[in-house]
């Protein structure tokens, strides 16, 4: 099972029968299309917070900040104003600025309104810090927030948050369309003048028709002329700002007047009675009335009660466009400067605009009018057409941006195969780099959102979804900062973990303040998506994006490993920490699984030695580096919880010494070394065997078998003396050792189902020096501990644990347990150790064999041998005959045994007379002892592992 290989191959199955041999010698990169970036880059200048800037291949790595490609470099044409400020400001104005600020002030009052704007913008400010930190640490590709989170938190969290971010874009589009429809109805419907004479009818389904028409118009624009629209984003922002300035001027200059209440407001209007609201112009009295809260009812949502949470949900839905600039990082001339400067200046600009608008509304407009006519700005404006233009341009551009953004996020999810083949239609439905299928899919979902009807209800859903996306962004940034990853070096210098933490807590709290039901549903949906994607998503298998979970685990594991002090170890908390030395896993799959069962939550390392020399004149790479990933794939295939350690050494013995020393870390070092037995039994390829549960073609590479093993006609490269010396080395290095034989016969499935297999056997007697004290020495207790561990597991739990005693003649004739001290003492010991086992005497042991006569002979082959005593042919033959007789007794008791634990005597000491010959006979006697037994483990423990104390 212990074989040595040269550097080029791993084909020997050294010292192995058919089980484990001890040791042997044995990204997708993607780049975004720069042409595609240029085509859609400007399109996203007007994108709302969710829109995606590029359409790069998300499956690959991103060369963050790299602009070495001339074609990519030539595509970076946008400055801070056009590339960041305009899209962010336009997205943050959205439908809120002309349609719902009055609703907020009229219900919450000026004080609470200002407080809510401060809360919202503080959350946004800290989230902007996280966005700037991530985006200035590397270019953000297609998918915006999805790209950031998936490349930081991994595909499971990235896919789940990306899905919710996609839905946030869809809801945001529905919100903007609803606002646009309100503006149209206000100006051209029956509610415009408070009379029935409007040019278009009004009603729930009429509004749905108008919204659907606007949605379809947006669809056509995206499919046909979106790029031309994107180029006008600065012009659109200019129009919105002019309209907003006209509103400020009107507030400052226009005098008192009555403003009609819309007919749709059936809370105050009816068929016979018309009510107007009053606009007072600048008035301290009006301001005083509007300072406090006057929560009423929302006439657009069937009279639902308004409260702090509803108002904040509406407010926050209008300021969710902070991602629009970061999404443009691939198009910016200087992303590290433009993104922070442009985003922060846009946030400050919109904040000042909203604060000014809120103060002027509170100082000029009655509470009644603010609560009952959300579109009162038109009648009170000096140039009412400006308000109409502002509403239509702001809402239409925001809705269009969200539709574009949602389609790009959906396309990114499809390209990453987050949902496997479910979204293949999106990839196939792309024409001239425009994701037609993704756009149509988004359009259909927007239609479903429009059925909700009420803008304020849609706004709460929109706020919760965007807040969840921002929460994940802060979480990603906080996690990567806590890990201290050296490659996290954002050029944005005003970010710390404190800002990310405040943003994280703020978004989490305000999500539930806005609407606990929507927030809880979103979080639950997110967690379900995380679990589903972890279990089923092809993207979660082997993607090379880098996951923050790995960095966090590294950070925590390192911290706890440093705290784990081997000097504080106590026998009460001992657990096996296994190093299994494997020649070729093809021939020892059952043993790999068995040791995984025996580790009891401890360290499990699979070690492998490649025989060769790493010299200065050798230009080839270290072969263990190339094979390491193959061994990791083996671990995945075997479904065991193990680490892999490979080493290159001049000899297998030297390599094993390396592995024993280097495996593990700190106090987590192997304490038990497991080797396959050195025999001539036929090897079996479990990867090819027809009925093998381990059968797979994964390790056949174009006809070349990975993990080759020694064929039966091949000579072993490890000598008998080397194998015995390895056993001696392990014991001298103060490690427990197990030699495993016949594990190619182990079938756990049969054990679980068979009515014939009933036992796990322990033979604590040292066959080489039999005496009744054996059940109480360290080796025997270690053996019983391992057997007890196996007996705890579900597959093995139904089996009975048996301990065999080999009693003397006087004990065999005793009539009571008290007259048989060995059995009595062992029974008491098992009780104190809480080991449930039955004790079986072997009375025929002394009748068939003469212990005293063989004891001195057998000592010659162990560590207790007399170096001055020469071996004779007669002694060797008598010893083999003795072992055959012992083997026959054990076989007679093992017809229904699943696995057998036996006492392994220490090998001969180095330096004894005829040392090589003694090693050869030592191994021969072990071979005779274990011949034709069930799967057998020869055990030698050196440390106490059991405790009877609390």
Automatic annotation (TrEMBL):
Ranges where the SLC12A transporter C-terminal domain occurs: 590-679, 788-942
Topology versus the membrane:
Multi-pass membrane protein
* Keywords, ordered alphabetically: Membrane, Transmembrane, Transmembrane helix, Transport
Question: What InterPro entries does this protein map onto?
Answer: AA-permease/SLC12A_dom, SLC12_C, SLC12A_fam
Source taxon at top rank? Eukaryota
Which cellular components does GO assign to this protein?
membrane
Q: Which Gene3D superfamilies match?
A: Amino acid/polyamine transporter I (1.20.1740.10)
What sequence ranges are listed for the domain Amino acid permease/ SLC12A? 90-579
Quote any Pfam family the record assigns: AA_permease
User: What compartments host this protein?
Assistant: Membrane
Gene Ontology BP terms:
cell volume homeostasis; chloride ion homeostasis; potassium ion homeostasis
**Does the UniProt entry include the keyword Cell wall biogenesis/degradation?**
no
Specify where the region named Disordered lies, as residue ranges: 1-30
Q: Has UniProt tagged this entry with the keyword Membrane? A: yes
A Gene Ontology molecular function term of the record: potassium:chloride symporter activity
What residue ranges are annotated as transmembrane? 81-105, 117-140, 161-185, 205-226, 233-253, 306-326, 347-370, 382-405, 436-455, 494-512, 518-536
**Record-stated family:** Belongs to the SLC12A transporter family.
- PANTHER family of this UniProt entry? GH08340P, SOLUTE CARRIER FAMILY 12, CATION COTRANSPORTERS
Q: What is the protein named?
A: Solute carrier family 12 member 9
Taxonomic lineage: Eukaryota, Metazoa, Ecdysozoa, Arthropoda, Hexapoda
């Amino acid at each position: 099972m212990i074989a040595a290989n040269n550097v080029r191959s791993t084909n020997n199955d050294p010292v192995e029968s058919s089980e484990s041999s001890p040791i042997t010698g044995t990204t997708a990169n993607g780049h975004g299309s720069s042409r595609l970036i240029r085509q859609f880059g400007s399109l996203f200048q007007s994108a709302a917070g969710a829109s995606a800037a590029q359409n790069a291949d998300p499956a690959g790595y991103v060369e963050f900040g790299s602009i070495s490609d001339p074609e990519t470099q030539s595509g970076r044409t946008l400055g801070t104003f056009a590339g960041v400020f305009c899209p962010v400001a336009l997205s943050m104005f959205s439908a809120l600025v002309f349609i719902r600020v009055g609703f907020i002030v009229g219900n919450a009052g000026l004080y609470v309104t200002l407080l809510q704007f401060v809360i919202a913008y503080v959350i946004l400010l800290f989230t902007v810090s996280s966005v700037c930190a991530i985006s200035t640490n590397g270019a953000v590709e297609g998918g915006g927030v999805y790209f950031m989170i998936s490349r930081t938190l991994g595909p499971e969290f990235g896919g789940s948050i990306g899905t919710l971010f996609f839905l946030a874009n869809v809801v945001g589009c529905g919100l903007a369309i609803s606002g646009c429809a309100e503006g149209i109805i206000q100006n051209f419907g029956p509610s415009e003048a408070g009379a029935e004479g409007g040019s278009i009818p009004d009603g729930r389904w009429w509004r749905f028709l108008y919204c659907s028409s606007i949605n379809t118009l947006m669809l056509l624009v995206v499919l046909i002329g979106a790029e031309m629209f994107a180029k006008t984003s600065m012009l659109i922002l200019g129009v919105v700002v002019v309209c907003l300035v006209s509103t400020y001027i009107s507030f400052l200059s226009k005098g008192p007047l009555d403003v009609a209440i819309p007919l749709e407001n059936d809370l105050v209007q009816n068929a016979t009675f018309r009510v107007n609201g009053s606009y007072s112009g600048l008035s301290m009295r009006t301001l005083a009335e509007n300072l406090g809260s006057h929560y009423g009812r929302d006439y657009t949502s069937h009279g639902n009660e308004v409260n702090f949470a509803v108002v904040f949900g509406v407010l926050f839905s209008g300021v969710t466009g902070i991602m629009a600039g970061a999404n443009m990082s691939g198009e910016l001339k200087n992303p590290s400067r433009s993104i922070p400067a442009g985003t922060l200046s846009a946030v400050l600009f919109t904040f000042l605009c909203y604060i000014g608008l809120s103060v002027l509304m509170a100082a000029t407009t009655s509470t009644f009018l603010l609560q009952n006519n959300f579109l009162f700005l038109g009648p009170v404006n000096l140039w009412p057409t400006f308000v109409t233009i502002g509403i239509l341009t702001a809402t239409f551009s925001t809705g269009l941006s969200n539709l574009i953004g949602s389609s790009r996020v959906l396309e990114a999810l499809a390209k990453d195969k987050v949902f496997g083949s479910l979204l293949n239609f999106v990839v196939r439905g792309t024409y001239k780099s425009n994701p037609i299928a993704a756009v149509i899919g988004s359009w259909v979902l927007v239609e479903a959102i429009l059925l909700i009807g009420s803008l304020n209800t849609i706004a709460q859903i929109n706020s919760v979804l965007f807040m969840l996306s921002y929460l994940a962004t802060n979480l990603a940034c906080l996690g990567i900062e806590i890990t201290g990853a050296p490659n996290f070096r954002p050029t944005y210098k005003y970010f710390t973990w404190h800002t990310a933490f405040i943003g994280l807590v703020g978004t989490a709290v305000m999500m539930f303040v806005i609407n606990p039901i929507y927030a809880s549903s979103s979080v639950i949906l997110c967690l379900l998506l995380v679990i589903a994607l972890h279990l089923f998503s092809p993207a979660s298998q082997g993607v090379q994006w880098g996951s923050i979970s790995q960095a966090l685990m590294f950070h925590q594991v390192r911290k706890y490993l440093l705290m784990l002090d081997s000097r504080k170890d106590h026998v009460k908390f001992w657990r096996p920490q296994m190093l299994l030395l494997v020649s070729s896993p093809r021939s020892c799959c059952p043993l790999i699984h068995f040791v995984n069962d025996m580790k009891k939550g401890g360290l499990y390392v699979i070690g492998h030695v490649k025989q060769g020399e790493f010299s200065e004149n050798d230009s080839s790479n270290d072969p263990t580096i190339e094979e390491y990933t193959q061994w990791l794939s083996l671990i995945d295939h075997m479904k065991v919880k193990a680490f892999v350690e490979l080493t290159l050494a001049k000899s297998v013995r030297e390599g094993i010494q390396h592995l024993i020393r280097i495996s593990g870390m700190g106090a987590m070092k192997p304490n038990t070394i497991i080797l396959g037995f050195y025999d001539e039994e036929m090897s079996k390829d479990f990867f090819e065997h027809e009925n093998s549960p381990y059968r797979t073609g994964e390790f056949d590479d174009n006809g070349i078998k990975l993990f080759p093993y020694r064929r039966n006609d091949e000579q072993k490269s490890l000598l008998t003396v080397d194998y015995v010396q390895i056993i001696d080395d392990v014991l001298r290095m103060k490690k427990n050792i197990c030699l495993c034989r016949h594990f190619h016969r182990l079938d756990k499935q049969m054990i679980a189902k068979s009515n014939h297999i009933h036992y796990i056997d322990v033979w604590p007697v040292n066959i080489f020096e039999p005496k009744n004290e054996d059940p109480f020495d360290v080796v025997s207790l270690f053996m019983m501990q391992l057997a007890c561990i196996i007996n705890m597991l579900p597959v093995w739990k139904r089996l009975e644990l048996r301990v065999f005693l080999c009693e003397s003649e006087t004990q065999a004739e005793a009539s009571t347990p008290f007259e048989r001290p060995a059995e009595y003492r062992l029974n008491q010991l098992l009780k104190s150790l809480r080991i449930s086992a039955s004790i079986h005497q072997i009375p025929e042991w002394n009748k068939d064999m003469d212990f005293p006569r063989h004891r001195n002979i057998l000592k010659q082959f162990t560590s207790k041998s007399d170096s001055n005593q020469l071996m004779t042919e007669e002694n060797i033959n008598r010893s083999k005959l003795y072992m055959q007789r012992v083997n026959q007794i054990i076989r007679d008791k093992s017809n229904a045994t699943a696995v057998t634990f036996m006492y392994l005597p220490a090998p001969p000491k180095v330096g004894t007379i005829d040392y090589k010959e003694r090693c050869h006979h030592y191994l021969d006697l072990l071979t005779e002892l274990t011949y034709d037994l069930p799967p057998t483990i020869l055990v030698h423990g050196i440390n106490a592992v059991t405790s009877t104390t609390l």
